[in-house]
């Protein structure tokens, strides 16, 4: 499902215009992003938990030159499905 398809679905289910649904979907994404930045996690009971995890610095190999390189540490987003979501997709 693409973002456009999600907006269409929200508009239909909530009986609102596509413009309103688009703003609502954007607001949800912005809220999740803000929660990850400010608190490091967003927990939506039954749906799942978004969390920020630090990936440590590690060694890698440049495939073009076969030289060893250092891949810097960075933060990544992680998602763990909740019980209701797990049950729904089985």
Strand content: 25-35%
Q: Quick one: biggest sheet?
A: 3 strands, antiparallel
- Widest sheet, order of strands: 1-2-5
What is the count of DSSP helices, taking H or I runs of 4+ residues?
Answer: 3
User: What is the succession of H and E elements?
Assistant: HHEEEEEH
Characterize the overall form.
elongated
Class computed from helices, strands and strand pairing:
alpha+beta
Distance between the termini: 18 Å
How many beta-strand runs? 5
Radius of gyration: 18 Å
Query: Low-confidence parts lasting 5 or more residues at pLDDT below 50?
Result: none
- Mean residue pLDDT: 96
Number of domains: 2
Specify the helix fraction band. Answer: 40-55%
